[in-house]
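Quick illustration for those who missed Monday's session on complexes.
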Amino acid sequence: MWNSVDFDRVDINGQPPEQEPWRQYYFIKKARGYVADLAERLGHEPTACTVTFGCQMNARDSEKLAGVLEEVGFWLTEDESADFVIYNTCTVRDNANQRVYGRLGFVNSMKKKNRLKRVALCGCMMQEPSVIEKIRKSYRFVDLIFGTHNIYMFPELFCRMFESNGMVVDIWKDSDRIVEELPVERKYSFKSGINIMFGCNNFCTYCIVPYVRGREKSRRPEEILGEIRRLAADGVVEIMLLGQNVNSYGRGLDNPMSFAQLLQEVEKVEGIERIRFMTSHPKDLSDELIQVMKESKKICRHLHLPLQSGSSRILKAMNRHYTKEQFVALAEKIKREIPDISLTTDIMVGFPGETAQDVDDTIDVIRTVGFDNAFTFIYSPRTGTPAAAMEQVPHQQVQEGFDRVLGCVQETAKKQVARLAGQTLTALAEEQNDQDPSLITGRLSNNTIVHFPGDPSLIGKLVDVRLEECHGFYYTGRMV
Ligand code: 5AD
Ligand code: SF4
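Prediction with 5'-deoxyadenosine bound:
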């Protein structure tokens, strides 16, 4: 395992090994030399900053980038004035792309002041050829660009950046390999994400993920469980299993295994108190999973189940493989079997061809199911996806639909969350409250947030809290 490797003792006199992860260990050692030189030229310990856009998968990838940066000798900061800044990008909606271009404009001005500063870009947005073209043309100060498939090669690409005069660009179209045992630096000491699979095979017609993250591939259960055991030994009590569609976990493995079976194995790991997972596709959610959740002591009472639309006609055009009625029946079955569960969802408004009646259907599902929370998005056409070539809905109509959906989500979520008032539930103390340091922010098994008086020594512990007052999406309470 990587944290028992003594990188100082890696031999870099010969050629780099062909095999991974040893090849990257070689480049970590080599990169240490480049960073030491940089320290000398700067006259201080070099600093590095990772900036993450998008989902939990990207957040986990950034922890891996940070792990390498720390190993090669950087002091990690959250300040973009650092000597090395890497933007881990998202391209699921256009506003994520626009934010990256905005940051680049800002970082360019800082680069003019610090000539030794280097800037890198990686993540989903870099898998789009039009983006690379634009950066080559208009953002020539960027030093390194790589994509989602070769992120494991970060140490090697980092060295290449130091050995080259111009911009280093390395993007792969796809990959079927998963490289294990590279360094990682967790953001939280007591909770962690864990990749169980990469990519997506679903091709929802609006979604760019299958194009930028490639085909679905599952990590082997031994690797996943080994990582979880090590995390538990390191004090982690809550884990989140990550994948674009966790319900299809295990299909391509040499010894196929279902997601529910994986969960049962994870449950056995001593020290892990809470298990979460993200994201579930409704079409693949099995009865086996519902039963495993129901019987589990550790799997959290929360399920994120993206609806996208409540109109069967639109769902068909989205290639989602379920109808309005099937979704509602599934949600009702889950709530019947696990009454204390919270359901949350993703909803999109403005998909091509959507009418006011389709939006009515979506609102109908929101009211019938009673989500605890919903992330609502305006449909954003993504180049290369089938929906981008369909006739788009006029902006005014989209906005009207969006406002109606948002209003309904807020109203139903408030009612749902309010049902917990007066109960005493276990919260994981996560951090000191930003606005009021006398408060600790905790998270319930069902993902609801509660703020309660307490001191930072509680962070990372599970404590019982009485939920006193509901403030819409969160509670204030008191430890009992
Ligand atoms: N436009 C708007 N929202 C999108 N999502 C995915 N693709 C798009 C798009 N093109 C939303 C979906 C998904 C969430 C992660 O992002 O709701 O569940
Ligand atoms: Fe995109 Fe659909 Fe795959 Fe989710 S399941 S990543 S929405 S294609």
